[in-house]
Specification:
This is Twin-arginine translocation pathway signal. The protein has 545 residues and is α/β, with parallel strands linked by helices. The chain is 25% helix and 22% strand. It has 2 domains: 398 residues, no CATH class; 82 residues, Immunoglobulins (Immunoglobulin-like, Sandwich), CATH 2.60.40. It contains 12 helices and 23 strands. Strand 19 and strand 20 form a beta hairpin. The N and C termini lie far apart (72 Å).
Length: 545
């Protein structure tokens, strides 16, 4: 085997052997803070949806009129085909492809308490480049600018804690695929090996030395040789434990014959075989649906069909095998798609997206309500509700049992639990964590005295923004966010309060986000919109040049 093939097929790391520092202090002296000797045997499975999954057509705002009429006139999923699955007050439904698989697919998992739906996940100042945004999600770092380097992944930094430990029996992480991921890159080493075929990996392992060869530091090629030599020692070691686990393990559930299902089938078998690997990563590509995305039966529907089948078969398999209490999975995609469809019957790169968490130990809830309630941070993209690092931090602290010190060191700070309670059943609220500074929950009974968005409350939370403002020709769009069903009427007054005419006759609107094209009356100058929402009055200034 030539060197290039060897490195490609045996990319392996152990958790960085280099030094990760806080100030000038080596973290290897902080074992008590890192809980190195107390880690549990819980497992994380990451399902990467490469290309940017269209979250709006995955969990559908099927009671949002603009979804059908304004944003997705050709690409919407018909209301009579979408599957209502949660509290009707939320106004959401699942794509019908998510019923594919054993026990009604992912829909059945939600019904059986094995699926969390987390809507509006993203980060501040989102980057819409596939490569850069993937690096941001994998690194767990939101850079200050596009020039900031992202050299390590959040799981790579997490497993750096084992830098001075002996070679373990099983690799810390396994990525089922051909190419290394930044996700697992530590300060000096990767924490994952690449795996496609355990039999092939075992044969590769037998072809390399099991003992380290000392070349000597004076050799011209010492660094390169020592690296390859070290990789060889580890692949020889890990190939044996992986092959043994594969031979011992089995599958008890049927899987579809597609790539993602085959990947998850392999993961379930290795878990059943007793491999002590902590994190598995699998992937499904094809989500960059700029053109020909399709509605029912289209490309995106087919991808969700595969995802639902693979995840539901995996969940059923590990339940039958008796391992489901220690396995949790999450779906990850570098960004979502824009609410507006494009001229090519597709959707362009967007921002806030939906994530799924699955397993026995997740809360079977919908977090984040309906995307219709997320404001636009510009004219085209949704603002996020939850920082994706909140999910990472909860995984480290609750699922892996890491210390607060370690999780904050890995991510560079504290991040709020999802809705202050988290998506894992065993998560304990932490008063030291900040509250999320994004859109609050809104789908409560409007007549409830505890609902701050109720028309019966003294607090007025309706939101209105005009753009462009100033306007040169008097034409503009009013962005309107309503938290309760209300009658809305809009009239125009001048700066002295004199009526200039009605711009919108009274009309009933359900809760959600709306974009109303309007045109000012009169000439240049400052104009004021009088927006009457039920019994509440709002005023927005608009300048005409």
């Amino acid at each position: 085997m030539d060197r290039r093939s060897f490195i490609k097929n045996t990319s392996v790391g152990l958790g960085a052997v280099g030094q990760m520092r806080v100030g000038q202090m080596n973290l290897s002296s902080f074992d008590s803070l890192y809980q190195v000797d107390e880690e549990n045997d819980n497992i994380l499975v990451i399902v990467q949806l490469f290309g940017g999954n269209d979250g709006i057509n995955t969990i559908i705002p099927h009671e949002w009129p603009d979804y059908y009429d304004r944003f997705r006139p050709r690409l919407h999923i018909p209301s009579d085909a979408s599957i209502g699955f949660a509290d009707p007050k939320l106004g959401i439904a699942m794509h019908p492809s998510l019923t594919n698989g054993v026990n009604e697919g992912m829909l059945g998992m939600y019904k059986n308490g094995k699926l969390s739906v987390i809507q509006g996940v993203g980060y501040q100042n989102p980057n819409l480049s596939h490569f850069r945004s993937t690096d941001i999600w994998f690194s767990g770092i939101v850079p200050y600018n596009d020039g900031q380097k992202l050299p390590t992944g959040w799981l790579g930094r997490y497993f750096d804690q084992y830098q001075n430990k002996e070679l373990p029996e099983s690799p810390y992480c396994i990525h089922v695929g051909e190419s290394p991921l930044l996700l697992f890159q530590g300060e000096n080493k990767e924490s994952a090996i690449l795996l496609e075929d355990p039999e092939e990996l075992f044969d590769q392992g037998k072809s390399v030395e099991s003992e380290k060869i000392e070349l000597g530091e004076q050799s011209l090629f010492a660094d390169e040789f020592n690296y390859i030599n070290e990789v060889g020692v580890r692949i020889n070691h890990f190939s044996k434990s992986i092959k043994e686990a594969f031979d011992r393990g089995s599958n008890r559930e049927d899987y579809q014959a597609d790539n993602l299902s085959n990947q998850m089938k392999l993961v379930a078998r290795l878990i059943d075989g007793g491999l002590k690997t902590k994190v598995y990563s699998v992937s499904l590509g094809g989500f960059d649906t700029h053109a020909g995305q399709g509605a029912l039966g289209g490309v995106h529907s087919q991808l969700l069909y595969q995802m639902s089948a693979a995840i539901s078969s995996f969940q059923s398999d590990i339940e039958k095998l008796g391992h489901s209490s220690k396995v949790v999975g999450i779906t990850v995609s570098e960004f979502g798609r824009r609410p507006y469809e494009n001229a090519s019957s597709g959707t362009d790169h967007g921002t806030a997206n939906v994530m799924f968490a699955f397993g026995d130990e997740v809360k079977p809830e919908v977090f984040g309500s309906n995307v219709a309630f997320l404001p636009f941070f510009d004219a085209e993209n949704l603002a996020y509700r939850y920082d994706f690092r909140s999910i990472y931090q909860e995984i480290m602290r609750t699922w892996f049992g890491a210390s607060t010190f370690l999780s904050e060191t890995v991510l560079g700070g504290k991040f709020a639990l999802i809705d202050k309670v988290g998506f894992l059943k065993s998560t304990q609220p932490d008063a030291s964590l900040p509250a999320e500074p994004v859109v609050p929950e809104i789908n409560q009974d409007p007549k409830s005295p505890n609902n701050p968005y109720s028309p019966y409350s003294v607090t007025e939370q309706d939101k209105f923004t005009a753009f462009p403002n100033p306007t040169t020709d008097g034409k503009f769009v009013l962005s309107m966010i309503l938290y309760v069903e209300s009658d809305v009427a809009i009239s125009q007054v001048d700066f002295k309060g004199r009526e200039m005419g009605e711009l919108l006759k009274k009309k009933n609107y359900r809760p959600g986000s709306y974009f109303l094209p309007l045109e000012l009356r009169g000439g240049a100058g400052l104009h004021i919109l009088h927006i009457k929402v039920g019994h509440r009055n709002h005023y927005v200034k608009v300048m005409k040049l």
